[in-house]
Every structure is written in structure tokens, then in C-alpha cells.
Amino acid sequence: MPNELLIRGGTLVTATDTMAGDLLIRDGKIVEIGSGFEPSSRTIDATGKIVLPGGIDTHVHLSHPIDALGIKTADNFHTGTVAAACGGTTTIIDFALQRPGDSLAQTRQRRLSEVDSEAVIDYGLHTIVTDVRDETIAEVGPSVHEGFPSFKLMMTYAGKRLDDAALLKVMEAAAANGGICYLHCENDAAVTHLVRRHLDRGETGPYYHAKSRPASVEAEATHRAICLAELVGAPICIAHVTNSGAANVIANAREKGLPVVSETCPQYLTLTEEVFDLAHGFEAAKFVCSPPMRQQSHKDHLWKTLRSGEIQQVASDHAPFRFSDQKTLGRDNFTRIPNGLPGIETRLPLLFTSGVKADRIDLSRFVELVSTNPAKIFGMYPEKGSLDIGTDADIIVIEPEREVTINHEMLHSAMDYSPYEGMCVSGFPTWTISGGEIIVEGGDPQVQRGRGKLVRRSRINPDALP
Ligand code: URP
Ligand code: ZN
Ligand code: ZN
User: What is the pLDDT of residues 406-450, one digit of tens each?
Assistant: First the structure.
């Protein structure tokens, strides 16, 4: 008996089409789409439900070290990928952080040894380049060739930040070899200046974290990143866009025909700067992330860019730090509050609820933002991010009317809070299927540790970016 799974009677939705249909999976691949299929040995009745390509989250930080604080993000590759699967994500791309003196190959090898036996869904790695030597640049081509075509470049963060000269070198090498650079854009000198100002005044609470990273700091760096990329003809993806200044710079670049794509995250689409209000005291540390959440007008603008196509993907930037013993490291000094929010499990439900259910985007655009475009931008399409015949059977089935109230205890992340506590959402998957295997059913993960596979990704064609 071949290893088959039939998903029968659902509404199939891709980035381009919506149709009623049955979908037959064999040996981990989609083999047939049609109607009236005979029940298989395993059949999912998807009547009244929607069937989508699994989510792809290209921005997650699992077991991510913060050396200055001697801690790691709260989720490892097991808890983090179980949480991802329960939230409808079937592929993640995490990061391998280059240590000074290390080669890019060593950097990834070390990271892969942490992931391989843990991940329950498929995964890739972006290489965070921090030590730009001639030898590092010489490794950019081989990295792409081995299936790691994306390079994360930080314009801020001590120990990881690259100056403009280094950015140019990596971008140029990536462009010449079919790679793409993924940028964290904030003006480091401006942040450092503003941080100093607040600390000198004795302003040490989490409210001042947001005050030291205003929108202009991000917009300036975004503009500079695009200018540098244009000089060397490099395709780039701007990470976690939060505001209209940065979004407009990106829109202008795209209008000029530059290969610039970008992402925003659910926190910037559903929360505002009010979370940092002084009245919340140190509780506001739960929301400390970089760049921070902005005013309502920026949030409204981001929704417009998702509709217009100016921003192409929504990733989580899952960087979970427990409140009880990790966020509290910065109780007396906001610069010691680890930066980041959990979000790997709530990304799809939040975008489904505040986007599709609220009539801001349609279902196909939802699929494009959370799955198809991430696959295209980072070299995995159409094997991932589509429902095409012959591609990986990474699929989710959602009951659009099933509502869930978020609290951290029902989530699978190893966290002691959720930024979305108490929000009522729909869009959690009833089934998550990875490589043809049901790994979540009715919200319950049934999954073997380490079953996820490394995805070796293709070269990036700048002309094929969404
Ligand atoms: O505050 C954030 N976003 N932390 C995660 C690391 C990053 O900057 O993406
Ligand atoms: Zn970042
Ligand atoms: Zn991040």
C-alpha cells in the first residue's frame, strides 16, 4: 500500500487561485488534484474548511545566544518547531551567527549540529555575517552553491554590526553569486547617542528603549541599505519594517525597478507604541523589541502596503525571552532587556484574523504573504509555498470560523507570556501536514523529534523576486 493521504472536499487556496477540490498526497508529495476521489487509507474530511500551503517563517531565532547577557532565547529547535507546526508553519529559516575568526562553513556546521536532531519541521539557515575578511567574502559563492543563498547583515547591535564598507563587500559578493542579503536596518550611531542621553538622565525603564529607536533611525538605515545595494547591483530583503518612512523608501526603490523586497511582522500590524506606556512600568519589557512598535498611523500604513504589494512577506521575528528571569535582567537598565517577542505560533492566526477576517486582505494575499512569497524570496519555490503537483506536501487545513482565545498556556512555546494574551483569533490549523505526514491534529502535536529536514535552497534570481 503506497504511503497515501487524501484531503477531501475542502476549498483549496493558493496565492493565485481558490477552488473546490480533493488533494492526493503520496510519498510526501502532492500527486493529484481533482474531485470525487475515492477515500484513501488515510482521509481528512476538509468539508467547510480551507486547505493552504503550509506557512513559511523566514525570520525566527531559536536557541539564539545573547552573549552580553549569557542567555539564549527560550525556545530550542524542538519546542520552537513544535510551536511553529501548531501555528500552521511547516518550514522555518533560522540563523547561524558567525563568530569572529570562524569561517561561514564552520558557522553553519556548528548550528546544524544543534538543529538536526531537534527540528520537527523543515528548516534552512541564513548566515549572519559579522567578520568580513577576504576569506569570508571568498566563501559567499560556495555558501550559495551549498544551498545557503541568504546572508543576514546587521546595521546595529554591538559585535554583529557591519559598517558601510563591509555591507558593500558582502552585498557585492552575494549579487555576483546568486545570493540575497537580509538586512536589519537601524542607524547604530543614532541609537547609541539616544540611549546615552536617556541613561544620563536616569531614564532606565523599557519606555526609553522605544524612545531611543524612533522611526527616523530605521528609515535612514533602510534608505542607506538600499543605496548601497543599488551601487553594487545587489538584491536585498529588508527585515521587520515598522513605519511609513521606511516603507516609502522601499516603495520608491521598487518603483525604480530595484530588486528590493521587504517584510513586516504581526506585532507591527496588531500592536502600537501604547504597549510601552510609562503607566505599564516594567511590564512593558514584555514588548521590548527592535525596531519597536509605532503609532497607529504607521500600523495603518503597513496594512496599506500589504494590500498594495509594497511589502511582500509577513514573518514572525520569533525571539522569545521569558519575563520571569530573562526580560527582568534589564529591570534597572533598558539596554539589558533582551530584545524580542515570541510569535512563531501566532503569526498565521493573527494575520488571518486581523487581515482576512477584518477584510483588509483576501485569502490569496494571505497565502502569498505567509507562504508563497517567503518561498520565492529565499529560494524554495515552488517545492515549498505552492500546492503544485510534484511539490512537497506541506499543507494546513483551517476551519475559518473556529475561534481561540490566546493565552501562553495553550501555546507550545517554552514561554511564560504571550504579547497577544486575551486576543480572540481564528486561523489556527486543525491539521498541519509536513511532507505528507499529519503532525498536528486538533491542535495536538503528534510528532517525532528530529523528523524535520534541512532545505538546501536555490540561487536567487533578482528578476523573479515578488
Ligand atoms: O528585537 C528583536 N527583533 N530581536 C530579534 C533580533 C532582531 O533584531 O531581529
Ligand atoms: Zn532584526
Ligand atoms: Zn530577528
Answer: 999 999 999 999 999 999 999 999 999 999 999 999 999 999 999
Map residue 393 onto helix, strand or coil.
coil
Question: Whose C-alpha lies nearest to ligand 1, atom 2?
Answer: 340
Pairing relationship of beta strands 65-66 and 71-72 according to DSSP bridges: antiparallel
Contact indicator for 6, 40 with CB cutoff of 8 Å: yes
Minimum-distance ligand 1 atom for the alpha carbon of 239? 9
Report the share of the chain in percent with pLDDT over 70.
100
Q: 126: which 3 cell numbers?
A: 541564513
As a whole number, mean pLDDT of residues 116-145 equals: 97
- Which single residue is written with the C-alpha cell 503528534? 446
Secondary structure (DSSP) of 9-78? EEEEE-SS-EEEEEEEEETTEEEEEESSPPP-SSEEE-TT-EEEEPEEE--B-SS-EEGGGTEE-S--HH
Question: What confidence score (pLDDT) does residue 2 get?
Answer: 64
Residue whose CA is at the smallest distance from ligand 1 atom 4: 340
Cross-strand pairs, 151: 127, 181
Buried b (16+ CB within 10 A) or exposed e, 378-387: bbbbbbbbbb
Tell me if 240 sits within 8 A of 268, measured CB to CB.
Answer: yes
Let me know: does 191 contact 161? Beta carbons within 8 Å: no
From start to end of 121-222, where are the E strands?
Answer: 122-128, 150-154, 180-184
- Rounded to an integer, what distance in angstroms lies between the CA atom of residue 81 and that of residue 257? 36
**Residue of 115, 251, 229 lying closest to 164 (CA atoms):** 229
Alpha-carbon separation of residue 90 from 59, 140, 447 (angstroms): 13, 27, 12
pLDDT score of 1: 46
Summary count for the chain: helices (H), strands (E): 14, 21
Residues, CB-to-ion distance under 5 Å, ligand 2: 184
Q: Residue 419: which of 305, 247, 284 has the closest Cα?
A: 284
Cell 527560550 belongs to residue: 74
Using most ligand atoms within 8 A of CB, pick from 182, 240, 271 the residue to mutate for ligand 1. Answer: 240
Nearest CA-CA partner of 54 in 436, 433, 312: 433
Cis-peptide, bond into residue 214, ω within 30° of zero: no
Give me the mean pLDDT over the 283-312 stretch: 98
Residue nearest to atom 8 of ligand 1 (CA): 290
